Each structure stands twice: as C-alpha cells, then as structure tokens.
Sequence to fold (912 residues):
Amino acid sequence: MSIQEVHQGRLRSPFHSRISALDTVNQWHEWKGYSSADALYCEDMEYFAIRNATAVFDLTPMTKYRITGPDALEYIDRLVTRDMSKIKPGRVAYAVWCDDRGQVIDDGTIFHLKKGEYRLCSQERHFAWLQTAAIGFDVSIVLETEDVAGLAVQGPTSFTVLKTMGLNGLEDLKPFGLMNFGFNGVDLMVSRTGFTGDLGYELWIQPDKAELLWDALFEAGKLYGIRAMGTHALELARIEAGYLAAYEDFLPANATVRNGRTRSPLELGLDWLVDFKKPNFNGRRALAEEKRNGSKWRLVKLDIEGNKAAHSSYIFSKEKGNKREIGFVTSAAWSPVCKQNIALGTVRMPHGKVGSNVWVEIYYQREMHWSRAMAKATVVDKPFWFPPRRGAMPPGPY
Amino acid sequence: MTDKYDAIVVGGGHNGLVCAALLARSGKQVLVLEANDQVGGAAVTREFADGYSVSACAHLLYQLQPSVRKDLKLSPKLASEDMTTIALGDDGQHVRIQGKHVDGVSDADVDSFRGFHKRMTRFANLLRSYFNKTPPRLGTSDFSDLLTLGRLGIDVRLLGKTEMREFLRLIGINIHDELTERFESSLLKGALSLDAVLGTHLGPRSPNTIMTYLYRLAGDHGRTASPIGGMGSVSDELAQVARESGVTIRTGMPVSRIVIDNGRVAGVETASGERFDSMTVISNADPKQTIIELVGARHVETGFTHRIHHLRMKGNAAKLHLALDGLPTIDGLSKKDYAERIVIAPDEHYVERAFNPAKYGESSPEPVLEITFPSFRDSELAPAGKHVMSAIVQYAPYEREGGWTDAARQEFEAAAIRVIERYAPEIAQRITASELLTPVDIEREFHITGGHWHHGELTLDQFLFVRPVCGAAQYRMPVDGLYLCGAGAHPGGGVSGAAGRNAARAILSREKAA
Fold:
C-alpha cells in the first residue's frame, strides 16, 4: 500500500516566489490553508497604491467552486437570493446566500463563464452546503481553488497597465463583465471586479503561468506606480467601499451557535439583492415573513466626528442622560482618501435611519491609560468611496 | 384540458381515500388520482396466479382506527378476527398467544406474560390516543399545540410514578433485553421479537424496538383480523364511501408533477399531460417522492430537502405468495388453526441472526415469517379445494448487495420455503405457483420509495413531533397548499386511516382559522 503524502504546512500560492521577493516585513497569516501577506513593505504605501496608482493582490486562496450541469442555472437561482437568470454568460454577479431561516451564510461573486457553467468565489468554504443544496438537481460542484491562480489589479492606473500589457479590447469591458485573452498560449480571464471600490480588474489564469503573468504585469506597470499589496491595505479599502466581510460585519449562519447572532440580507442592507419576484430561493419564506413583520437589525455606514477610529465601539442613541445602547461597530477606520472617520455597524431597528445621528463610544489608549470619548456620528447612505472612474466607460488613461 | 377542484389527493391509498371522503363530506369538490388501475395503494387484493388471489402487500388488519370506522361508518367484513398468533415450535409444540393469554409455556411465563401484556397495553393505549391527533409543535405559542403538549405530559404522569418511570425507561430501549428479563420460553421470546420488528429495518436488539412493538399493539388493542376478499375489500369499501360522499376517483392516472406557482400549490399534472387545478394538493405518496420528485427540490428549502432526503425508509420485508393445491400439514395444528396467524421465529436469537446479514446488504439465509392462509375462511381467493398462502418474509434488504437479480430472488424464496419445510415438510410439493415481492418490487408496484410500508422507519427520531421531519409534522408541507396524508405523516403505517383522517381534520381546521 502506498501512502499518499498529505501536505500539512501552509500552501504557497503560485505567486509566492514573486511576492516573497518583494516582501520586507515578513508578516504573514493563514487564509484558507495558504500563506497570505498582511503587508509587504508598508501598508499605508500599499493602500495609497490602490487609490493613486495600481495595487496587485494575490487572491488565489479565495475559495472557488465550478458549478456545471443541466440544472446549473436553476441550482444557483435557488441557492442565492438574486435573480440569476438575468446574469448572462460573460457577466459576474455579487450575490448572497442564506440558510432556511433566511440568515446569511456568506456573500461572494458568481462568474457566468459560459452557458450553464459558473464559478462561485467566496472568502469561506461551503462545499457541504453546496452539496446539500444539490439534492434533487443535476449539477456537479468541483472545488477548483488550487487550479486557478487569481490576482486583483486595482487602482486608477490599472486599466492603462493592463492595456500596456497587451490586453487589447479591454476598454469594452464593463463593470461586472468578463473577457478572455490569450496569454503565453493559455487563456487569461479578466473580470472587471474587485474588493476596493475603485477602478480595477481581477485576472484568472492556470497556476503554471502565474509567474509569467506577474512578471508581465509588473513590467507593464513600471511607469504607472504598480505595487504589490497585502490584506491590511485591502481591508481599509473595502471599508471605504462599504463592502462587508464575513466574521467581521456578519457571521456565516451555519458556523454560528448562538441565537440572534446571525443576520439576514435585509438586516445587512442587501435588500437590493433579494428578489421576491423569484418563485423560490433558499430562505425566501423566512425573508418574506421578515419583510412583513420588520427586521430586528440594520447595518449602518457611519460618518463619525473626530479622527479616532471607532473600533468595536458601542453605539448609543443619545450622548448622555437616558442613553440606550443600540448596537455596535463591526468595522472602523480613518479613511485617508475621504479624510473621514468611518465605520460599519449593526444597530437595532428602528434606529439608524439614513441621515439620523447616533453616538459611538470610542475607547483609545494613550501611554498605557485608556480613555473614552463619545463621538457624534451620522448615518450615511452611499459608500464612503465611490469614484466615477470605477464605472467609467471606457476607463480613462493615466 | 384543465379541471378545477377544491382539493386533489395524489394517490388513492387507504389514507388518501379516508382523507378525500372526509373532505368531500365537508362540502369540498375532491379528486383522487391513483397511478395504478385499482385503488388502495398497498392495501389491494390481486390475482397472482390463475384463479389465486391474495392481499398483495398488507395482509392483516390490526390498525384500522375506530375513529375512522366511526366517521366513515365502515364495517369491513372479516374472515377471521381476533386472530391467535401461533409460534411454530419443534415437534408440534407450539406457543399460542391471544390477548393476555399465552399457551404452551411454563406457568411462570403465563403469569409474566399477563403482567407484560397489561403494561404494554396501557402504554399502547396512551400512544393510541395520540394517533388520532395532530402532533403538537415544539417551541410554539399556538394554544391548541400547547394544550396537546400539556395533555401528553399529564397523560404520561397519570400513569403513576412506577409506570411513568417504566414508560420512559422502555420507550427507547430494545425488546430483546425486556424479553430476556421476563420470559423463559425461547419460542415466546422469538414470537414477541418478531412482532416488534415486522416491517422495519431493525432487529430485536436494536434500540427503539419496544416502541415499534407498542405501535403494533396500539393499533387495535393488539387484535389482528383478516378481511374477506383480502385487503382490497377494505379499500373498495373506502372507495365506495368516498364516491358516495362525492369524491371523483380516477385510476390509471399517475401524477408526474405537483404544480407550484409562485411558491404555492396550483394543481397537478399527470404523466399523460393532463392538468388539474387546485389550491390544495394532498399527497398520499411518501414524503421523499412528494418533495423531491413531485414538487422538486427547487421549490423547497435546502435544509428541509436535506432532512427529507435522509429519511430512513429502506424496506426490509418481502412478501411471498404461494398457490397451493392443498393445505400443507403442520404437525400440532388443528384444522381451524389455519385461520390464525402463524409465525416462524423459533427464538429471539434466531430473529437477530436473521437480521444480521441485512445490515450488510445481504438477505437472510434463514428468514423469519408471518404466515396466513387467507383462503381457509375465504374460498373465493382460490379455486375449490385449493389454497393460497400469504407471508411476510424478513429480512430482504432494499439495497441488496448485487441487486435483486432473478438468482437472488430464487435464492431468497428457496430459503423461505426451506424454513417453512421444517414445520410443513410437504409444502414444496403443494406449490403450483408463487410470487415474491421484494422491497424493490413493492417500490415499483405500490410507488413507495424504498418499499418501506411505513413510508419511513418508525423510530423515535421520525415519530410524533418529528414525523416525517421537523418542520412538517402537522401534515402541512412548507409549500402553501401542500399537505401530506400518508403513512409518512403521523402516526405512521399499517392500514389505519389515522394519517388520512388527521390530515383532513388539519386542513379543515386550518381553513376555519383562516
């Protein structure tokens, strides 16, 4: 009997040789089995590359499932809350999926690669749930995380960088669109998607061409300020864009034990993704009931006075007197590009209407001593960062 | 062509007919669509050889609920009633069980059986009173649910301190332990073991087999009967009552799809493409077939589909029908004994040993049998002077390793006949024709997934509040307008009519509340 070796250490992405060559701070963490860099040289500089030039992020560890088969569309349409029949081949959809009680399991992007063939990308792993959801459907679900190398290329000069690299026709790629190019004899898929809220693309290629792609990209980007980045810079950018992160702004429902700790899409401000016109999707009955009876929670985007980031703050309805705790901050940051103190939080209904004021209690430490400040915050509607270049057609050159 | 009805019942099994008749009596336009050419589902009489007829699946009546008889004024004509169970022993030394009496065992066992029977009857009566109620939901604020739940608690408490403790101790355990503690006679233990496991994928040492024994006892105070004309006559009477109540029954109309429109039931479509509209569809089919095949997983939730998909419902009981040119001689039986229920389970280990191979997908080389000679009191079933034998033979696992090939069938039938030969040596010469229905045949012919006559194993995790699965125990499925009325719903299988009656009542009371 032969013994198959099981890899017990952290996996290395096919871009590892290139990323580690640029790394100076040696700060890594584990992401779904892979080593992933927190930062490579300076997280602030990496962040500014996203907003002012081009930043490159290795998203190979992102969980990817290939969903195919005669029932693929019907299967995905039942899985997620939005109407997937509207997502044509060559398009990408941001989507959220729920358990039977209408509580969010995770969000992610679904790529309609070609008719009846999809790729689902998410931060967390969902094989068991996807398999369970497949009962009664003629579909095949294959985990392909290791078979596809992915890079996020994000920032105002990203279009120019990719054009310089030779991606002719990229100017026709609309947000949430897909295009295929030839690259060194293999297929390079480019989607106009990202997690930064800026102009940006994601590149998908087979792993053995990953290093070649990296080299070509950095060669093309030389004059356009291209930089590699780690997850810390990305985290700041995604809060500015108002995007949610699992385990921060919500808990995956099937990994949550305590009652009332999960959230429905309506409670996460994702009602635009919930299509009640669809005859059925998982959680529909529960969500319809929630819509009738009202939600318990509301996700809020907060513009906070002052400059101290409101990490893990309680949110109150009033500054003083008979003040009531109404929720808490889930993600917070000082936004350099907006020059704003921003946060995402969860508050009990009916609090947190757009335009209303709430108070956050900010704890901060100065030379060992903790201090507390109450800061006024305004609930805002729009993402903090939403530049016109993000959706520009064609994207402008820089 | 489109027809509109107040309610459509998918499947004309006995529960479907009971449900349809009760709804029609409340003034509803009801249509029953049955796939086969005769109604009754697994409660039918069929000719299996020229001139020989037999109850094709269920063959003894021990569950028909008095409430159903009363509501529909049924009076099935019986060939034998209050049948004695005769457990065949060596050298004609048989054990006879009738109610609380047992004969052919030691005095100590006679006494012990009386006590055992008294206690079991008491517990069974408690269960029976819940067979005719919609099981309450747990964790609800619904008043009638809370009332039923409270009533259940009180009823258990009213058993008294000792009996309540015994009830709670016994309900989850295996029957083997209890029988070993109480009785000396191997034959008696074998016969009671058989009663506990008949029709299940359980052996006497499997947990939960006291519960299945109680379930059997609860039906009709433990009395068994054999209807004149076979089980089909019960279904025919039900069909007649239903028609007289105004129900339209159409046979040979397999439903291929329950039509769902925007999250609610809209009607059904038959295999021939006919469409019937109704805002209420009641499925007499088993839960798996109903949800996964007829409704389709896409119309229900993932977690719910998962629970339904994992229902344990793989049958393990085969049916053997023999056409005989005369009654076989069985040592120690008098002439009139052939009207009784005869079982072959010589000791409690024998039953467990018969079950052992079934765990690994093999059929029993020495099966256990429940035998009747229905033609003995009902001459219509066989040509003059000839007889039919109807037997349940266990264990014949649905998922037999290698499948139920012709060779596998012959092997199992031969095994059953070898076992009968030990007591009736001339049986083989008397056989002029035979028919073996394995669970695979039962699945195909009676449209029961897995060929399990309870539409789902009758175990604590699939019982009462959680039958068939949690979230659907009150006959209502999680699709508006869809109900379940078959054995897969509470209380379970057997020709009882309770599920059909309870479903009809649940539908009517829901309408009243709306």
